[in-house]
Amino acid sequence: MARATAAGRRSWAAARCIVALYCAAALTTAPAAATYAAAGGPPSVPAGPLDIVLLGAKGDGKTDATEAVQKAWKNACAATGVQKIIIPPGNFLIGALALEGPCTSSIIIRLDGNLLGTGDLNAYKKNWIEVMHVDNFAINGHGTIDGQGPLVWQKNQCNKNYNCKILPNSLVLDYVTNASIRGVTLKNAKFFHMNLFNCKNVVVDKVNITAPGDSPNTDGIHMGDSDNITITNTNIGVGDDCISIGPGTQRVRVHGSRCGPGHGISVGSLGRYKDEKNVEDIQVTNCTIKGATNGLRIKSYEDSKSVLKASRFVYDQIVMDNVSFPIVIDQKYCPNNICNKNGQSTVTIQDIVFKNIVGTSATPEAVTLNCPNNLPCQGVQLVNVNLKYVGARNNKTMAVCHNAVGKSTNVAKELACL
């Protein structure tokens, strides 16, 4: 390969910088060629087509198009500049995809068709669409990533065995930096719809995520060990957590989004495994939660295996609409009775603000703060919280609080447990 000139290296460095900003800001509708031209040069020509139909894919919903997508990725990844993979209108049956980097280009997948996950579980080693070790990546369009979960949900045994075999997650980003997912729909995942692990600078904007409220373990967006994740203007209605924030995650911003049905916007579970890291700097603002089992929930195992901290959370301007348990801190979480109920917690929860939380609770218990005896929650604030139970007249709205230390400001007397 010929050695790059100094000017060429400077041009490519400038391009990488612009593309990083382009992805992080989710400006995925701008023409790729124009974006690169502003950086001083065109992208290189890929080794082959980037339109999956030109690579043999058929949008008939029956013909396996996996190989065509993998070829398009290979062609784009080996090029330079901004490369756009095209998935045009149509129904494309897809098996497991390993979209691996590192790449010498920045890649946009323009999704206007529908990807259908095969119901043959033998086609998956682990997940369905997995993007790994990639910088500067985007998916945008008006298409759908359909896991076709109803074909396999009956094989999910996690309600009986907590150490069950996990069905394939739909869209997984592992070790991805500067990414945006915008405009598309994810539906009926076999397990989680979107899973972010060890990612940095990810924007999810104007995405719809949907599955029946009774579908098993169909979390909307799960993240762990990730930094600077932004979720805006996104609608999530699923059978498990709408958004799940796992250990090692920091700087999360959720704004202008809707949840329901589902199990709410959750932090945790924390402390299940050894060597988990802190969860810090979480902000959930201007959101609506409707018809969910939980609203805003923080949960950790009663016999936690890690020493970690969950701190600096702000929940502000949240509307609850018929939510069973709107505000929950549960440090005695013990699903399937798998833990020692006399365990000493090693998870510290501190500096948690619930502010301007209004609406209705489907049970009398609108606020639950259940912290451990040995390590009480510290710095919890209830500010301008107005939640009303909408059930029978003789059951009044109430708060159930244990070992939580903080203050209540402008909160109804029955909820002011701090």
TrEMBL record:
Q: Name one Pfam family in it.
A: Glyco_hydro_28
Gene3D superfamilies named among the record's database cross-references: Single-stranded right-handed beta-helix, Pectin lyase-like (2.160.20.10)
The similarity comment for this entry is:
Belongs to the glycosyl hydrolase 28 family.
Its top-level enzyme class, in one word, is hydrolase
One GO biological process term: cell wall organization
Q: Which domain of life is it from?
A: Eukaryota
Q: What is this protein called?
A: Exopolygalacturonase
What the protein does comes down to: May function in depolymerizing pectin during pollen development, germination, and tube growth. Acts as an exo-polygalacturonase.
What Enzyme Commission number(s) does the record list for this chain? 3.2.1.67
Give its localization. Answer: Secreted, Cell wall
Q: Which InterPro entries match?
A: Glyco_hydro_28, PbH1, Pectin_lyas_fold, Pectin_lyase_fold/virulence
The record's keywords, sorted A to Z, are: Cell wall, Cell wall biogenesis/degradation, Glycosidase, Hydrolase, Secreted, Signal
Question: Which terms does the record give in the GO molecular function aspect?
Answer: galacturan 1,4-alpha-galacturonidase activity; polygalacturonase activity
Query: For this UniProt entry, which residues form the secretion signal?
Result: 1-34
Q: Which reaction does it catalyse?
A: [(1->4)-alpha-D-galacturonosyl](n) + H2O = alpha-D-galacturonate + [(1->4)-alpha-D-galacturonosyl](n-1)
Catalytic residue positions: H263
